[in-house]
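Input (structure):
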């Protein structure tokens, strides 16, 4: 099968024929229909996120189940599925507590499936899977808990975004930060994920949603997703503008959706008394932030992180798809370009230049 492989950081992905072994027990084979080009894959391509190489990237996919390994019960051949990048074992400490996005199986297997081996190979040499998905490929073998059954009337080139950007963003606002109706919100970084934080905050009933990004095209889209005000730090002092707009108080909820130390510090600074600052981006390992610890006590500010929108995939993902089908959340507006697999490098070029929010790689 055809797949896009990363051999070395800062080199283009190469399109190659790979072998995909059949699913083992508890695994599912999926014919990939579509896959969004998310920024996290770019972190691996640039070397900011370390992964074993060579690797097949792609983690925002949807498709149709073609085969199930022994013991698989939740999906069957022919089912439409969204793929997730965070397995759920159902019995570890965190799964038992209901925090399935923190499942302890995840950190144990970087670049492989849950048994520590890969199903991908070329001429007998193993190729790694990114994030249990590896969906820049015509087919994928994934853990059962990463294949979430969805309704069949949703187009798969839209459903795929629920597998990452839509879930990560909306979930950060609703599940992790729990934005209150009437609250003031600031979102720094209005890419594919940030736009979804904005629509999550709007869905939660936020009163004022302030979008901050360096690019005018992203700020224009932020308004479409529910921002009430926009600021461009290359033109305005974003901190001063947010403080003025909130009568000197700062916002109730700030979100950092870029992953730089400077923007995390800025987001925390513009958070007001009793407010919550949520970090959505994952920064390079070497990054460090500097904060005044007294504001935690004197102002009861909170600084928290959000992984994958604190998702409960089997509950949240079919729900987000229902909301999309009922026109209560936007996905179409996120998609700037559609490419075949051969266009994957161009899709990432455009993302890096800031010309697109999301491109979709479409197989069928
Ligand atoms: N000030 C304001 N805006 C900025 C600045 C700045 N200094 N620098 C960049 N931006 C804007 C860009 O113009 C762009 O609009 C936006 O920030 C970034 O958007 P995208 O589309 O490139 O990136 P996303 O939205 O696809 O991904 C952002 C993440 C923060 C999620 C990603 O980078 C990340 O850290 N991923 C790992 C974390 C994670 O949980 N991932 C789950 C799978 S994604
Ligand atoms: Zn992603
Ligand atoms: Zn678990």
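Output (sequence):
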């Amino acid at each position: 099968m055809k797949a896009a492989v990363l051999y070395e950081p800062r080199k283009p992905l190469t399109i190659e024929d790979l072998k995909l072994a059949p699913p083992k027990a508890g695994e599912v084979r999926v014919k990939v229909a579509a896959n969004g080009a998310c920024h996290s894959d770019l972190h691996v391509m640039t070397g900011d996120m370390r992964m074993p190489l060579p690797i097949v990237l792609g983690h925002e996919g949807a498709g149709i189940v073609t085969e199930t390994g022994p013991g698989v019960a939740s999906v069957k051949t022919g089912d439409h599925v969204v793929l997730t990048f965070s397995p759920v074992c159902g019995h570890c400490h965190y799964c038992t507590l209901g925090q399935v996005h923190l499942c302890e199986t995840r950190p144990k297997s970087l670049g492989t499936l849950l048994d520590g081996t890969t199903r991908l190979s070329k001429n007998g040499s193993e190729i790694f899977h990114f994030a249990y998905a590896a969906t820049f490929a015509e087919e994928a073998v994934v853990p059962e808990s990463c294949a979430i059954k969805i309704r069949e009337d949703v187009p798969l080139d839209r459903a795929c975004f629920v597998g990452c950007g839509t879930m990560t963003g909306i979930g950060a606002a609703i599940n992790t930060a729990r934005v209150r109706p009437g609250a003031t919100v600031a979102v720094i970084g209005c890419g594919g994920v940030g736009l979804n934080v904005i629509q999550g905050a709007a869905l939660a009933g936020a009163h004022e949603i302030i979008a901050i990004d360096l690019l005018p095209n992203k700020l224009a889209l932020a308004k479409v997703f529910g921002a009430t005000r926009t600021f461009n730090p290359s033109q305005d002092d974003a901190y001063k503008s947010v403080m003025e707009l909130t009568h000197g108080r700062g916002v109730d909820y700030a979100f950092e959706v870029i992953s730089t130390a400077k923007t995390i510090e800025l987001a925390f600074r513009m958070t007001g008394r009793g407010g919550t600052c949520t970090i959505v981006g994952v920064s390079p390992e070497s990054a460090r932030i500097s904060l005044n610890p007294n504001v935690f006590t004197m102002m009861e500010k909170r600084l928290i992180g959000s992984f994958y929108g604190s998702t409960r995939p089997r509950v949240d993902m079919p729900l987000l798809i229902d909301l999309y089908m009922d026109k209560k959340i936007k996905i179409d507006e996120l998609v700037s370009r559609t490419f075949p697999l051969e266009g994957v490098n161009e899709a990432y070029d455009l993302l890096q230049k800031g010309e697109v929010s999301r491109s979709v790689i479409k197989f069928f």
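Notes: Residues 166-308 form a domain with the Rossmann fold fold (CATH 3.40.50.720). DSSP finds eleven helices and 19 strands in the chain.
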